[in-house]
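Long-time lurker. I teach an intro course on protein structure, and each term I like to show students one example going from raw sequence to a predicted 3D structure in token notation. This year I'd like something fresh instead of my usual example. Would anyone be willing to generate the tokens for the chain below so I can use it in lecture? Attribution to the forum is fine with me.
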Amino acid sequence: MKSTSQSRAVRFLALGDSYTIGEAEPEAARWPLQLASRLREQGVAIDPPRILANTGWTTDELSAAIDQATFDPPYDLVSLLIGVNNEYRGRGLDEYRTQFTALLERVIALAGNDPARVIVVGFPDWGVTPFGRGSGRDTAQVARETDAFNAAAQQIAQQHQVTFVDIAAVSRPHGDLAQFDRGMVAPDGLHPSAAMYAGWVEAVLPVALKKLRQPGSTPRPTH
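-- Reply from a regular --
Happy to contribute to a lecture. Here you go:
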């Protein structure tokens, strides 16, 4: 018999861009859905993730979408993955810092003003993909900018006592200027495949489990 404290499933809100909706891959490949599945395997009862994301969104566009969306806070777990389109469009790092800070504060509010419920996820180096190598862009510069934007997000997350997960480190070993592991990229040659997202989930899973199992959190065992 379940106790009353185990009667409600974890609610997970995932915010971001194409990497959060799994552009060019089936819906089931999305990393938030894969994470929810892995959490269930670990005995955590979790509802299907609520996803607010769209291909091409920058920090200000995600913020505008949050303005228009209806939420039911507090969420037990909230993820934020945003910034690659700021970098891709040549938007400034200082602007990103300002907008990302404002976004993260909104995200923390959606988590019941509890930063321990929030995960910031970095974004991958798209320059190592087949699309990136054929784009005509300086891939070394893309790598430097990717690192700079991720470092800014990590610093801001730490200042707000939010955990940062670096998935650029997970993604880069699969590609370099000579070749790319095609099994790790979607058919468009740019976005991650289900297999790559699974690698991201391996990095995020222990963080999510720790957050959901800490005192005062809302983990709901399935048994």
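Some talking points for your students: The longest strand covers residues 12-16. Residues 139-159 form the longest helix (21 residues).
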